[in-house]
Structure formats: structure tokens, C-alpha cells
Design a protein that fits this description.
Layout: E1 5-14, H1 17-22, H2 27-43, E2 53-57, E3 60-66, H3 69-87, E4 93-104, E5 109-110, H4 112-119, E6 129-131, H5 133-140, E7 152-154, E8 161-163, H6 167-170, H7 184-198, H8 205-221, H9 232-240
Parallel strand pairs: 4-6
Antiparallel strand pairs: 1-3, 1-4, 2-3, 4-5, 7-8
Length: about 240
């Protein structure tokens, strides 16, 4: 089985996936499930050269890597990219990232590190990836944070430290640069989708609450500079129909 290794570990929960599976007799919902699974496969992959490991079971994903700058970077950026790719499919992600002892192989997955990360995934909580104090302390102990502290944000909802999954949108500027990803059109799409989900009458209150949380996060982080679109440009239209 092997010995414990000190690893950074992310526990990620795809919100609403179980409900999709339960209703998979509907061909449209089966297509949605296939899209989510394809997003997982295309976004995340194990990397043995850097001991990045990945386990997916049901609607949960566990990612882990050694506790060193590159490993932490892989887990944090991988989680950010997955959250963004799923959001483009109107699917929310919630979870936690922590540091601790872990055994993570193809056959075995357990340890205090996993329990810490899992414990940050609060049932019914906002669709965010919470950062455990163990990871904050680890990054703070380095002489160079390698830009990782910029990926941590304090949630104004309850002051929880979370992964800043909208960071690339927050720092976006319209000036063209070679190799730069243009986010303007995608930001319009996401702002409209977030607004529409906030006011869907067929969503139960618990689901609408999650989208309303995301709307606030989007508008606080993304639209304050006036470069990318706010959800307010679409909210009135969807609110009128709710």
C-alpha cells in the first residue's frame, strides 16, 4: 500500500450531477452528462512526471500532488480550469483544497489530507472551492509564493478563504498581446447564463441561492473595472420572467 506522503489535495464535487444521472432517461440530460464527463477528461489528466494524481468517482474528483510549488500550482490551476470549463456548461463546482498526509494510488485513496479537503465541501454551501488553513500556511512559509496567493480570495459572504476561480477575468485587460486569451465574448456568455440561472422559476430555492452567490462573486470580481460584462445587463430581462 505504501507510506503516507505529504500532499496537497483537492476534493471537488460537481453540483447537480447526481440529479442529472437520476433523470438520465431523458436523452437531452444524457447528452449533458456526457458533456460533463468529457470536460473532466479533457481538463484533467494524471501526470506521473510530477506525481499529479487524479481519481473520479460518481460526482466527485480528487486531485493531489506533492507539497512543493509546482505541485500546488498544478492542483490550484487544475481546479480553477475545471471550475471554469464546467461553468461554461452551466454546471457548478464546490469543494476544498488542503495539505496533509495522503496515500493516493490507482487502488487506494485515504488519509487526513483528504478528510481536511472533504471537510471544506460544506453540504448546501456556496459553489466555491474553499482553501484550508494548512494550504495558506504552506504557501505563506515559502520565500516566493509563485503567484499562488493571488489565487486565494476572501469570500465577502462569510470571510472564508476560497480559490479565486474568476481570477483571469478579474485581471483581464482589453489590450491585445501575443498568445493572450480574449475573454470578452465568453464573459458576456457567462454573465447572461449566470443571470438566467438566478431567476429560473423551476430551480428550487437552494439552487437559486447558489447562482445568486455566484452572481455576487462575478459582479464583485469581474465587472467592477467596467471592462467585462456585469450580470445586471441581463438580470432585468430574466427577473421579469420569473
Amino acid at each position: 500500500m505504501g507510506d503516507y506522503q505529504r500532499r496537497v489535495v483537492a476534493f471537488l464535487d460537481i453540483l447537480g450531477f447526481s440529479r442529472l444521472v437520476e433523470m438520465a432517461d431523458d436523452p437531452k440530460l444524457r447528452t449533458a452528462i456526457e458533456g460533463v464527463l468529457e470536460t473532466l477528461r479533457s481538463t484533467l489528466a494524471p501526470n506521473e512526471a510530477h506525481s499529479l494524481r487524479l481519481t473520479q468517482f460518481s460526482d466527485c474528483i480528487v486531485i493531489s500532488a506533492p507539497v512543493e510549488p509546482y505541485g500546488v500550482n498544478l492542483v490550484m490551476h487544475g481546479s480553477t480550469i475545471l471550475a471554469g470549463n464546467l461553468l461554461n456548461q452551466t454546471v457548478l463546482l464546490r469543494g476544498g483544497i488542503a495539505v496533509g498526509n495522503l496515500i493516493h494510488t490507482d487502488d487506494v485513496l485515504f488519509g487526513p489530507g483528504l478528510l481536511r479537503a472533504y471537510g471544506k465541501d460544506t453540504s448546501g454551501g456556496p459553489p466555491r472551492i474553499s482553501i484550508d488553513q494548512t494550504l495558506k500556511d504552506e504557501v505563506a512559509s515559502w520565500h516566493n509564493d509563485f503567484g499562488l496567493e493571488a489565487l486565494m480570495r476572501t469570500d465577502t459572504y462569510d470571510l472564508t478563504t476560497m480559490l479565486h476561480t474568476l481570477y483571469s477575468y478579474e485581471i483581464y485587460t482589453p489590450e491585445p498581446e501575443i498568445g493572450k486569451v480574449v475573454l470578452d465574448r465568453n464573459a458576456i456568455y457567462l454573465a447572461e447564463q449566470i443571470a438566467s440561472q438566478c431567476y429560473r422559476v423551476d430551480h428550487p430555492p437552494s439552487v437559486r441561492a447558489k447562482w445568486l452567490w455566484l452572481e455576487r462573486y462575478w459582479n464583485e470580481a469581474v465587472s467592477t473595472k467596467g471592462i467585462l460584462t456585469s450580470t445586471s445587463e441581463f438580470a432585468a430581462k430574466f427577473r421579469a420572467g420569473s
